[in-house]
Amino acid sequence: MGEDIDVKENAEQDTFSITMELQRPLFVDKLEEINDKNEKKSNIKRKLLLGIGISAVIAVLGTFIWLTQTYSPKETAKAALVSNKNVDVKINDYISFTPKNVEATKGFILYPGAKVEPEVYAPFCEKIAEKGYEVVIIESPLNIPLLGKNDAEKVMNDYRDITHWVVGGHSLGGVAASDFASKNNMVDGVVLLASYPMNDDLKKMGKEVLSIWGSKDGVVNFKDLIKSREKLPESTTYVEVEGANHSQFGDYGLQRGDNEAIITSEKQMNITYKNIVKFLENIN
């Protein structure tokens, strides 16, 4: 009797063992299949993250290269950054041109174009100062004027004796100047050099505006420039400089995408400064 029970139990154990042995390969294969799928997913995820990381690095590097490739001053601009018998030049948080032997009551603040170093505008800014006006060129963060569009406020606070202010800008700098002027009651006028505002705030406020551009400009969008007249006051003064381009409002060479001018840089800047001086004379 006992032997029969033992035989039965052994038979059951053998059957269970055989079943487990038969099922084991199935379990192992299934587990390996799951592991393979998980590994493939992990590899895809790693490759995706790696691709995103590489793209981000390339984007950051590209942006850095773009920002650091600025337009620098040439010899004429460098020479104008030295004080002379008529003008005292100082370079601190911004570049200032202060007329000597006269107390300036009117001031002109200039925003540089995008990626253009402020020193390049020294030649015509020096000439404006020689006529008795305080002139300041703003140094924008990363040479992008929109990043420092309110920097003119610091200049105004530093020159309390100035009773009338005009702000201006070249290209994208004109956009920054327009935006600042539309939010500051101390600004009496705006000068746009190959530029135009993004909205009609100047028109609504009745600010005085001088718009100057070159007939050979290869950078500015002429269609938008003409259309922008709808956003400016009716009293706006328009000056097209025949043969002038975009780059020669400063001394930094030919800007990418611009056309060659058919007048000299000196002539273009002389016309520019004379029109700005005339504009300043009528500000009161």
Architecture overview:
By secondary structure, the chain is an alpha/beta fold. It folds into two domains: 1-69; 75-281, Alpha/Beta hydrolase fold, catalytic domain (Rossmann fold, 3-Layer(aba) Sandwich). The protein has eight helices and eight strands, in the order H-H-E-E-E-H-E-H-E-H-E-H-E-H-E-H. The protein has helices at 2-68, 75-79, 122-130, 152-158, 172-181, 201-205, 222-227, 265-281, and strands spanning 87-91, 94-99, 106-111, 134-138, 164-170, 187-193, 208-214, 237-241. It has an eight-stranded mixed β-sheet, with helices on both faces. The radius of gyration is 35 Å and the shape is elongated.
Order of helices and strands: HHEEEHEHEHEHEHEH
CATH superfamily of the largest domain: Alpha/Beta hydrolase fold, catalytic domain
- Strand order across the biggest sheet? 1-2-4-3-5-6-7-8
CATH topology of the largest domain: Rossmann fold
Instruction: Label the structural class.
Output: alpha/beta
Look at the structure and give the CATH class of the largest domain: Alpha Beta
- The level of helicity is 40-55%
The biggest beta sheet is recorded as:
8 strands, mixed
Rounded to the nearest angstrom, the distance between the terminal CA atoms is 127 Å
Taking pLDDT < 50 over at least 5 consecutive residues as the criterion, the unreliable ranges are: 58-67
Q: What integer is the average pLDDT? A: 87
3D shape: elongated
* Total tally of structural domains: 2
Hey, roughly how much beta strand do the residues contain? 15-25%
